[in-house]
Design a protein that fits this description.
The chain has about 130 residues and is of the alpha+beta class. About 30% of the residues lie in helices and about 30% in strands.
């Protein structure tokens, strides 16, 4: 009887697990942080989804990249290292982008498409994959 119950559990959970792995395997979730162009003394207001203390700005960027809803972050390292993860960007919510002394604003962006820099020839269709 226990074997039947275990098989039933495996039958129920296995398809859900496989489908979530397949969804995660596409490249739509691949993002990069723009470390080179912070906006000093600015931040995005009204879109904070998480407020955490981190050791440094790199840790803040990893927190954002590991949070699916995070599209940008505000960081303050004066006194405490405050990391605010945002669910919007200054590009999508420019009216909420304001001067804020002591903070730096960083964007995350989708990884660049290889198809844009190497279009297919002879009418072919380029498809980005995670295996390139």
């Amino acid at each position: 009887m226990k074997e039947v119950f275990l098989l039933l559990l495996m039958w129920w959970f296995l398809p859900n697990r496989v489908s979530s792995d397949i969804l995660r395997s596409n490249c739509l979730h691949v993002r990069v942080a723009d470390f080179e162009q912070p906006h000093t003394n600015y931040s995005l207001y009204g879109h904070v989804i998480s407020n955490i203390t981190v050791p440094d700005v790199i840790s803040c960027s990893f927190e954002c990249l590991n949070t699916q809803q995070c599209l940008s972050y505000n960081y303050k390292d004066e006194g405490i290292n405050n990391c605010e993860l945002n669910d919007a960007t200054m590009e999508t919510r420019s009216r909420d982008f304001h001067r804020r002394p002591g903070y730096r604003y960083y964007d995350t962006q989708k990884a660049p498409s290889k198809c844009a820099s190497s279009p297919c020839l002879n009418g072919g269709t380029c498809v980005d994959t995670c295996f390139d």
